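From the pipeline queue, job 12 of 40. The input is one protein chain; the requested action is below.

Action: predict structure.
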Amino acid sequence: MDRAEAVTAFRNGKGIVSAVLDGRTVQLTAELVAGEKSMTVRVGDELVIQEVDPRRGRVRVSLR
């Protein structure tokens, strides 16, 4: 599983993350997995990418 870093604080389980894709750093829209949507994510927090939606450029992430 790949790692990502929160670029924005998450609100309602959603935010922006930065991740390395094919050697480039990209920013993606992210959503916390269902069981963690109420958890606090601050700028700079490290997250784990659980699922990727390449068509929409979105990822589902978790704190673990």
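Job complete. The beta strands are 3-6, 14-21, 24-32, 46-53, 58-62.
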